[in-house]
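From the shared-data thread, chain only:
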Amino acid sequence: MGKKVCIGLSGGVDSSVAAYLLKEQGYDVFALFMINWKETAGTLTAECTWEDDVIFAEMTAKKLDIPFHIVDLSEYYRTRVVDYMFAEYEKGRTPNPDVLCNREIKFDIFMQHALDLGADYVATGHYCRREVSDVHGVTTYHLLEGIDPNKDQSYFLCQLNQYQLSKSLFPIGHLLKPEVREMARAQGLVTAERKDSQGICFVGKVDLPVFLQQKLETKKGNVILIPSDFSAKKKMPHNRREFLPKLSAPFPFKPWQGKVIGEHNGAHYYTIGQRKGLNIGGFVEPLFVLATDVLRNIVYVGEGKKHPGLYRPGLFISKEELHWIVADRTLQPGEEFNFLVRIRYRQPLEKATMIMADNGAYILFDQEQRGITSGQFAAWYDGAELVGSGVIN
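Structure, as tokens:
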């Protein structure tokens, strides 16, 4: 028998095919299904629950003739992911629970449980690739984009470290999604036609305000419309380097720059770029959230998806929030490098320059970016390799 591999079997087609491929490659495979969320408050009932998922996962394991186990990690998920979400929204930031789930649950608590069960590696159905290099006896693990440009999930793994990558396998990263579906059909797997999961990792699609109301109280406040020619719009200086802090900070909107056009139920329920949920009509173009002020409980909005308040030339990540997957790629204060940067999942990679300062990293984009949001993760790539990431200030 080959090395022992634990496949995180989710009940979806991707992990099912990953399990099949591992068996074909000669690994000694066993499946582990994780329960991370059992509650339904704020979730949309049409979505599948973990009870549905575990049935499909167990049927897949039986079809592939591999041992099947279940682990309940819901308490860890609550404290490490969901409580973090509530805390970030309360501060007026927008967290990414999927990135946190991978760093804190799948490749930490879950991985350790799998290793305790005797696994040499933990495999998942992520669309990404791992490469290994050995230079002068030093082994380094590299995280690369998945081959399928429509399904690449490397962004969700942007916070992994060398140890986690050393124990990880991504069996479908070299495949396109249609190829994965076809493999599942050819093997008669019950997950072949299951829809991809959506929404928050392991929670599903949610009505976000209702979900957040579990911890964050409703609080009436003003919605203020900012005109498209607002005076605080930052003009691009000829020498951008002299204005790094200003260019990388959110717009400092003030109430007197616009007019009150309605009410909301709590600024912490909204995020930059949001369109739905404002419930304010009478405008030619849709309204979008430009910024939130949770201290004053104000939501600033602009008319039209090209409103200049939605666009910024740069962002800042404090040194405490910087994470480098490969240590020798770390930039030191005074150094800079041209990376490809992504500020949200499935966003095209954008050319940018990272400029390292004593207090953190400034990232200036070649083209202004829409909807840069505090609390989200920026991930930077050198070609196909994801080099590092950090939480946007």
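Helices lie at 13-24, 50-64, 74-90, 97-116, 162-166, 177-186, 208-212, 244-247.
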